[in-house]
Give the backbone structure.
Amino acid sequence: MKSRLYQQLVTKKANGQKSFAVLIDPDKVDAASIDQLTGLATAAKVDYLLVGGSLVISNHLDNVVQQIKAQCNIPVILFPGSPSQISVYADALLYLSLISGRNPELLIGQHVISAAAVKQSGLEIMSTGYMVIDGGAPTTVSYISNASPIPADKNEIAMCTAMAGEMLGMKLIYMDAGSGARRPITEGMIQKVAAIIEAPLIIGGGITTPEKAYLNCKAGADVIVVGNAIEKDPTLIKEMSAAIHGMPVNTI
């Protein structure tokens, strides 16, 4: 099974290198905006482009991925909201298991349904323990999943959930406050979780400033994902990237 991007993330983590991923929702882009985003992302040295959303009601996922691939060499990683959100034109797939919830369909049920198609896709599959953290506002993922998020001030629950996910074999841990979160995940929670796991830690949701992105990296995040803020102001890509990539790198 392919593992190029996963090994890249592991190596970056070992070296203290932080990564920046821009999240692109296929429902919210057209050909012109894709061209703009890929141009800005290339210039800013964005590490990864995540493509997906909780719903994806449009029917042009393949077209979006193909256009991105035609415009730049940045790896495209699918961030699916359901088993139907698969495109063979991407580079990899975050195979998400909602470990913060108790909905069996999102823990394993939908994975059983999608397993054959995912296996046949030829994509690099990265098993990901997905944790939804309360961001102060109802989110699409919370509604669709019918699962309560982890309270924002319960660091110990987040720590034990991440540990359990890693011990169950999850290669990545993704903590998400959700699109449009009123409050992002605290640096305190990120620090606690980062200190207790070895898997690369992805943080997203409610990150609207370069300063917050920097502080999340300083707290222990390995990958910062920004989507909603860039939808509103694509020029933020340059500043976000500079803040994330400006973190000191291990010299050992």
Q: What stands out?
A: The mean pLDDT is 93. The first helix runs from residue 4 to 15. The chain has one domain: 4-243. The two ends are 31 Å apart (CA to CA).
